Automatic annotation (TrEMBL):
<dbReference type="GO" id="GO:0140300">
    <property type="term" value="P:serine import into mitochondrion"/>
</dbReference>
<feature type="transmembrane region" description="Helical">
    <location>
        <begin position="269"/>
        <end position="288"/>
    </location>
</feature>
<dbReference type="Pfam" id="PF03820">
    <property type="entry name" value="SFXNs"/>
</dbReference>
<dbReference type="InterPro" id="IPR004686">
    <property type="entry name" value="Mtc"/>
</dbReference>
<keyword id="KW-0029">Amino-acid transport</keyword>
<dbReference type="GO" id="GO:0015075">
    <property type="term" value="F:monoatomic ion transmembrane transporter activity"/>
</dbReference>
<comment type="similarity">
    <text>Belongs to the sideroflexin family.</text>
</comment>
<protein>
    <recommendedName>
        <fullName>Sidoreflexin</fullName>
    </recommendedName>
</protein>
<keyword id="KW-0472">Membrane</keyword>
<keyword id="KW-0496">Mitochondrion</keyword>
<keyword id="KW-0812">Transmembrane</keyword>
<keyword id="KW-1133">Transmembrane helix</keyword>
<keyword id="KW-0813">Transport</keyword>
<feature type="transmembrane region" description="Helical">
    <location>
        <begin position="227"/>
        <end position="249"/>
    </location>
</feature>
<dbReference type="GO" id="GO:0005743">
    <property type="term" value="C:mitochondrial inner membrane"/>
</dbReference>
């Protein structure tokens, strides 16, 4: 059955909002990272995928509305990898960043005083980050089990070493300064985790295309740019909650009523972090376009020469999926 004539044709391959503007990207990622989609069953997600696929082929159930199509696309984008089309594991999806991040970050900020607690929560956090980084990698660049293991161990070691080392250095420092140790460890862990988890892209390059999606080759410089942008986004995502929550908790803990409910300090901190992440996850993702670009002039000399030999000066800019 062909698509209903009552509804104008929608290009589902293009984002619903203009990706050239920050506001457009913010709307897009607020939609994509909506944590409510995590509750959708595999059956519902597969139905959404089938509706999107059939619509692209020109066949949809009669009476299908535009909003139903966009909602199906929302579910599809939230759960299926943009390169491989595979159903992503739930914990690694960007839509799980708020519930997963608020729990882990909240506990990291609460339990920072003892070495065992620091080691445990940094390990949990880097395990979570490794899964998110692997799930949202550029799937066109394969990564081996050995490389995944190396990235995971390296990032966890870096985060634990920084947190334990800073804990030792700040043992006699003001309590507020001690509360910032987890953020430093998270930044260090991400600095190691993201490039290592995506090292194949750095070694072999990632696929670049022209404005119409035609493949032009693989570029290491594009990979470097994409990975750097992802690192900035991830640190920006965590920064407000991890930098402001300690100040808020420090002031709240001075009140007698807060001192009486110490058993609720961890849940309160989790909820505070959650309030920040609800806004910061889409905001951080929206800092850079998902479909990143790079001027042909900035590509590797051999790749630049190859493109210019084949297309002349027709192609000025190339595009690639930077990952999330």
């Amino acid at each position: 059955m062909t698509a209903s004539s009552e509804m104008p044709r929608i290009d589902l391959d293009r984002p619903r909002w203009d990706q050239s503007t920050f506001i457009g990207r913010l709307k897009h990622f607020a939609n994509l990272t909506d944590m409510r989609t995590v509750l959708s069953s595999d059956a519902k997600l597969n139905q959404a995928r089938d509706l999107v696929t059939n619509y692209r082929l020109g066949s949809t159930p009669p009476g299908t509305t535009e909003e139903q199509l966009w909602y199906a696309k929302k579910l599809y984008d939230s759960a299926f990898h943009p390169d491989s089309g595979e159903l992503q594991n739930v914990i690694g999806r960007m839509s799980f960043q708020v519930p997963g991040g608020m729990l882990i970050t909240g506990f990291m900020l609460q339990f920072y005083r003892t070495v065992p607690a620091v080691v445990f929560w940094q390990w949990i956090n880097q395990s979570f980050n490794a899964l998110v980084n692997y799930t949202n990698r550029n799937a066109a660049s394969a990564i081996t089990t050995k490389q995944i293991g190396t990235a995971y161990v390296s990032a966890t070691t870096a985060a634990v070493a920084v947190s334990v080392g800073l804990n030792s250095l700040t043992a006699r420092a003001p309590q507020l300064l001690q509360r910032y140790v987890p953020f430093a460890a998270v930044a260090a862990g991400n600095f190691a985790n993201i490039p290592l988890m995506r090292q194949r892209e750095l070694m072999n390059g990632i696929v670049i295309t022209d404005g119409n999606g035609n493949e032009l080759g693989k570029s290491k410089k594009a990979a470097k740019k994409g990975i750097f942008q992802v690192f900035v986004s991830r640190v920006s995502m965590a920064a407000p909650g991890m930098l402001l929550c300690p100040v808020i908790m420090q002031k709240m803990e001075r009140y007698t009523w807060m001192q009486r409910i110490q058993f609720l300090h961890a849940p309160i901190q989790v909820m505070l972090v959650g309030c920040f992440l609800v806004f910061m996850v889409p905001t951080a993702c929206a800092l850079f376009p998902q479909r990143a670009s790079l001027a042909v002039e900035k590509l590797e000399p051999d790749l630049k020469a190859s493109i210019q030999e084949k297309y002349g000066d027709k192609i000025k800019t190339v595009y690639f999926n930077k990952g999330l």
